[in-house]
Prior knowledge:
Helix content: 25-40%
Number of helices: 16
Largest sheet: 4 strands, mixed
Oligomer: single chain
Strand content: 15-25%
Amino acid sequence: MAYIAPKxxxxxxxxxxxxxxxxxxLSTLRGIVESxxxxxxxxxxIHNAVGGNVLxxxxxxxxxxxxxxxxxxxxxxxxxxxxxxxxxxxxxLFATILCCNLTESxxxxxxxxxxxxxxxxxxxxxxxxxxxxEDCGCRIQIDFNNIKTLLSLVRTAINKPTCxxxxxEADYISSLVLxxxxxxxxxxxxxxxxxxxxxxxxxxGQSVSDSCILSGILIEIFASQSVRVDATKLTFGCIKxxxxxxxxxxxxxxxxxxxxxxxSGFCPEDExxxxxxxxxxxxxxxxxxxxxxxxxxxxxxxxxxxxxxVIVEDRLGLAVMEPLIQMAGARLITSYYHPVSPNCYGSIKxxxxxxxxxxxxxxxxxxxxxxxxxLLLCNRSEAGLNELKVVCQxxxxxxxxxxxxxxxxxxxGCTECHLATYIGYKVHCVTDDKxxxxxxxxxxxxxxxxxxCRSLDRTASSLEHDGGENFIDAKYGHRWSVLANxxxxxxxxxxxxxxxxxxxxxxxxxxxxxxxxxxxxVNLEMPPEKPSDYSPGQLILDSYTVKLNALQVAVETANLxxxxxxxxxxxx
Length: 572
């Protein structure tokens, strides 16, 4: 029985950063995300108390996409990170941790929120200008002739704990992803470059070493289907294919807001089936060998085509349609109420039946060197396979972005530490005119800048999960990790070996200090000199484009939260 309830007044809270509930929620979110960060991060089990699947992950897009947050400020923060991930697929954990660090620490600063926002915008500009400059000491040029550098970039994206890969397996998958990416680059490039597509087909229960790359597209054949490829009925190199995007189930077409006017005794479903069979007869007359449909094909039409030796596959889904028409040179057929134009047909080179584990596929091989391939991805467990698929898609995105901006940033927290050191130097060079423009004092600028540096340091320190200590050197501003329980009164050569990103080997004059403590001001106006044993292929690298955008998103989102004066919630 329906009833009317009076509306409840909206709640309005001022100064959200002074709210203990929000501060606790931010701290909890940061703790969850920090514990997943980096190649040695801990896994997270996500499960709804009402029921459903248990999700195991440590990847930012999966974790943040499945976290349920109730506070409107946290919803804003998570939505901002997910928007970044929807475009760049990676560095979501870095952005979330940095944003939480900046937001939480802003409450402790004895500086007006408007001043904090203006100063942090200026500090962000300093960071982005430096990262884009030729003198940047934490950015390297990507040489596409150097496979080792590209493998380092891919390995960073793939090396996630939930994938449960050995070092050998991680190297193997990295090389496969790189090979697949090269396969998507057209052999003939005109004025514009249009990359092909990597289709990922996951296979559970097989060894990671069974993963491979296949030219063309795989279409799964389910157990209920009986598909037999008769080579005598096919013409090698000229197998005609028709691709339908419209539902061919025989249902009445949705007329929207219109109306059907039919005579007595008329059955729309029967008329639809007649039209389907007319289309089927044309396909047989046109000697089409393969018919594929994004949606469902009526069983009567399917049987008719199969009786005439036409292979039929339906329920392909949207993801495979674009690469399929690109590979076959076909056009999507969007209606069966009109004769099919001969220009809509495409062709492929060959059809094969492929079996992997318990699953069977129809393998469509392209004519010529079409930039379409399938990465057959195997892993032992469902959780590991799902995560591996996500990170391989991230790695592909990273490589595509590297084509546009062929740079990488040093990983392992070294870029964050280096930026913090650079900002520490630039703070002492800020002019009085700059301070007047931002309407703040030199002391306020230094307080906010020091907090900004500490937030970068804490973000870099989040990569340590086993009780080790983090250090920074005074010459290059890189992060150095020391094992837990290492006696710090030992000789430096026994404590330090190489910075985390792999750029520099330890030597006596580096003057290490514990990360997060007051450090010596270093002049970083010129890029640091490369060591004699420098090798980009041995470095831990992050995507330049992805990390730069993540840095901007983190600071801008933190500024937005700091600037909030009221939170109004509708309780109805």
